[in-house]
Amino acid sequence: MDFKEKIEKLAEKFFEETISIRRHIHQHPELSFQEYETSKYVCSKLDEWNIPYRNNFVTTGIVAYIKGKNPDRKLIALRADMDALPIKEDNDFPYKSVNEGVMHACGHDVHTASLLGAARILKELEAEIEGTVMLIFQPGEEKLPGGAKLMLEEGIFESRKPDVVIAQHVLPNLDAGFVGFRPGMYMASCDELFITVKGKGGHGAIPHQINDTVLASAHLIVALQQVVSRFGEASIPSVLSIGKVIANGATNVIPGEVYMEGTFRTMNEPWRMKAHEKMTKLARGLMEGMGCEVDFRIEKGYPVLVNDEKATLQASAFAKKFIGESNVIDLDLRMTAEDFSYFTQLYPCTFYRLGVNKKGEVSAPLHSSKFDIDEQALKTGIGLMAWLAASFLNEGK
């Protein structure tokens, strides 16, 4: 039996157990940086399988190790995020969330279960792999500043740098059994905008005696779009959206203050910083011209996610050998963001997508109260992740 067949058989063997793990995690979701019980559960599985680990990174984060032959030869890191979202689940099945208002609506239960399943396979085959596999169970992907950033700051790679870091993420519009890769630029940076326009409020019938903060805010919303359409290069994907506006006046009352929130996303770090300056300068100048003041605050979020070209092309080739060329697709750019980007800024990384849609159906989107998966995807999830780690380790041995 060749090595690929061994992984396939082990993926089949541990498939039902992985489903059980995923359902347990799904049923007991925890918010970002509060993954206490999830962390304990992961540690209990690692203990059960005799996989050594260190915990308490960023309180709930865990780093575990599987050492094969020549453990110092290479280090391949596999990462999964563990946190859930503040969403009330509307699904109706036995393993739905028991924590009111909290739900695994972004597939992090799948990510954690898949990494545990892959660890189970790799532990069985540790005598046949070269080097070391590092398992990263990360908290707080959904909340700034991001658990990836904090775990890196706490020195998870302080003693040894990884040769490649790998992560997978569910994709609900891709059928189970398929995966997708994209070398190079893949996901956007994300920054949060918090804007307060201040002026002299008053009666709507005498706007000449006050400062119309609502009108000024409307002008600002429109003007900010010029940052993308007229200052940014057309070749650089960028999005600026205002999603929240609070003007707490009345039919005949113009409020003294209007509050807005939005997001700015792009795929170029130098342009990102330049856009921050343009937005701030434009807001202050425009509001001064309209007799208002503005507090324009930008909270920097995750950077651009750029997959290492060589590592991603290798991973894609390995995946084609494992699940077949027709089951591996090329991904499009996404303006969503991921804190795995902090890893990609420092090390060779590949962030790929795992199809979880049930063929012939239309899955609910990510961050939806109805989100769920075709659990057949877990077989691909655990097998492929184990195969990728082993293939990178054993390559050129």
Any chance you could write out the topology, listing elements then pairs?
Layout: H1 3-13, H2 15-27, H3 36-48, E1 53-57, E2 61-67, E3 75-81, H4 108-124, E4 132-138, H5 147-153, E5 164-175, E6 179-181, E7 184-187, E8 191-198, E9 202-203, H6 213-231, E10 238-246, E11 253-254, E12 257-266, H7 269-289, E13 293-299, E14 305-307, H8 309-323, E15 328-330, H9 341-344, E16 349-357, H10 377-394
Parallel strand pairs: 3-4, 3-5, 5-16, 6-15
Antiparallel strand pairs: 1-2, 2-4, 6-16, 7-14, 8-12, 8-13, 9-11, 10-12
Helix pairs in contact: 1-10, 2-4, 4-10, 6-7, 8-10
Protein described:
With 397 residues, the chain is an alpha/beta fold. It folds into 2 domains: 3-187 and 303-394, Zn peptidases (Aminopeptidase, 3-Layer(aba) Sandwich); 191-299, Alpha-Beta Plaits, CATH 3.30.70. Helices cover 35% and strands 25% of the residues. The protein has helices at 3-13, 15-27, 36-48, 108-124, 147-153, 213-231, 269-289, 309-323, 341-344, 377-394; strands at 53-57, 61-67, 75-81, 132-138, 164-175, 179-181, 184-187, 191-198, 202-203, 238-246, 253-254, 257-266, 293-299, 305-307, 328-330, 349-357. An 8-stranded mixed beta sheet has the order 1-2-4-3-5-16-6-15, with helices on both faces. The radius of gyration is 24 Å and the shape is elongated. The two termini are 19 Å apart.
